[in-house]
Amino acid sequence: MFWTRRQLLTVDFIHFHRHGSTYGAPRNFSVDIRVHFGVRVLNDSFVGAALNGPNSDAARLRAGQYHLRFNAKSGDTYERCIDDLVRFVLEQGEPWFQQFHSNDNLLRLPNSPLRPPEKQFLTDAIAGNANPENEVNSLKLLGIKRAS
Fold first, then answer.
1. What is the 3-state secondary structure (H, E, C) of the chain?
2. How many angstroms separate the CA atoms of 70 and 20, rounded?
């Protein structure tokens, strides 16, 4: 499941993954959510969404900073989970996205989430040499309907 925010040449995305299921079917009533942040260059030809940003790693969860689990049968800790998901996005994700909001930062900052091939795709797009097929595929990958 993706949440996306489109920029001119990139897309900020949040990927939500439910632990504890197999082939889509739950193993039990515990819903454990993992969150990953990423930036996708629309001109990128890679066939998957690179989870290239911070995530809800086990250390943060064990430290009690965020509670991203609830019981789907009883509803126990559901509200806490939702509150902590929002808090995680605001405290961890949004500052990270803001740091890489500009194409210049994506290309030049040493901690950029983009690897050299992705930087080249972005550089090509800035120069007006984007591959329209890559953009179509990137939008489809992230579930974004193309504006008409």
1. CEEEEECCCEEEEEEEEEECEECCEECCCEEEEEEEEEEEECCCCCCCCCCCCCECCHHHHHCCCCCCEEECCCCCCHHHHHHHHHHHHHHHHHHHHHHCCCHHHHHHCCCCCCCHHHHHHHHHHHCCCCCHHHHHHHHHHCCCCCCC
2. 12
Residue 142 pLDDT grade (very low, low, confident, very high; cuts 50, 70, 90): very high
Please tell me the distance from the alpha carbon of residue 56 to that of residue 36, in angstroms, as a whole number.
7
Type of residue found at 7: Q
More confident residue, 19 or 61: 19
Calpha distance 38→3 (Å, rounded): 10
- Give the number of other CB atoms < 10 A from CB of residue 68: 21
Whether the predicted pLDDT of 23 surpasses 70:
no
The pLDDT > 70 percentage for the chain reads 89
First to last CA, the chain: 24
Tokens at 140, concatenated: 């489809």
Instruction: Find residue 30's DSSP bridge partners.
Output: 71
Average pLDDT over residues 47-70: 84
